[in-house]
Amino acid sequence: QVQLVESGGGLVQPGGSLRLSCAASGSIFSVKTMGWYRQAPGKEREFVAYITAVGNRYYADSVKGRFTIFGDNAKNTVYLQMNSLKPEDTAVYYCYNSGGAWGQGTRVTVSS
């Protein structure tokens, strides 16, 4: 069983940056992808980005060019670097993997 723990959320002004982390522990060897979803207040959860075991990356159109997903295999951690943040990026961000594990979420608020 895999456990995912996110960190790095917080309050940031529009145009600012944050880096989210997702640390995995447990039986991770069969995991093929890891990524992020987000859920804004009053909205459904939506896809943000994911990365495959061989390093291929995919992004939602709304974050392309602003967000970067990358991993550190030695630390079993996936990161989401978020630049040029907008108020519409405000949401709880959830880490997930292809094995069906989800983290508890980390809140990101973009506001002046």
Secondary structure tally, helices: 0
In round numbers, the mean pLDDT is 93
Main sheet record: 6 strands, mixed
Tally of DSSP β-strands? 10
Spatial strand arrangement across the major sheet: 2-10-9-4-5-6
Q: For the CA atoms, what is the radius of gyration?
A: 13 Å
User: Which structural class do you get from the secondary structure elements?
Assistant: mainly beta
Which outline best applies?
A: globular
Compressed to H and E, one letter per element, the order equals EEEEEEEEEE
Helix content: under 10%
β-strand percent reads: over 45%
The low-confidence parts are none
Instruction: Quote the distance from N terminus to C terminus.
Output: 40 Å
Question: Could you explain the architecture of this structure?
Answer:
0% of the residues lie in helices and 53% in strands. The protein has no helices and 10 strands. Strand 9 and strand 10 form a beta hairpin. The protein is globular, with a radius of gyration of 13 Å.
List the helices and strands and how they pair.
Layout: E1 2-7, E2 10-12, E3 18-26, E4 33-39, E5 46-52, E6 57-59, E7 67-72, E8 77-82, E9 91-97, E10 106-110
Parallel strand pairs: 2-10
Antiparallel strand pairs: 1-3, 3-8, 4-5, 4-9, 5-6, 7-8, 9-10
Provide a concise account of the structure shown.
With 112 residues, the chain is an all-beta fold. The protein has no helices and ten strands.
